[in-house]
C-alpha cells in the first residue's frame, strides 16, 4: 500500500478538518475559514521509518501559527512486531512506493491517533465550528446531548 493510502487508512474520516486532501505522507485540510491544518508522517534522527506525526496549524495568509509532533508510540504504546513476537515502537517503513508497519496497527490504534490529533486541532477551531462538529457526531452515533441527560 502506498504511503498516501496508509495515511487515509490511519486518519480516514476521523480527522476534524474539512476538505482533507492526501498527498504522499501529508494530509492537508481546513480547520476553519482562515486556518489550515497539515498532518505529516515524519522520521526521527537516525530512524529508517516514520515514527512521528507532525501537526501544523497554518494561517491562510500569514503562515505557521503552531506546530506539535506526536510520537506514535506515546499514543498507541508498545506493539507486538509482525515477524517476531517482541515488543516494538510502531514505525511505518517505505520501499519502492510501498509501505508496511512493523506491527499490527488496529482500528483502535487509528482511532487513538485521530483523537490525539483532533484534541490538538480543536484548540484552534472557532467555537461555533467545534460545537457543530460535536452535534454532528452525536447525530451519527445516536447519543443524547449531555444537557438532556440528568
TrEMBL record:
It comes from Hungatella hathewayi. This is Uncharacterized protein.
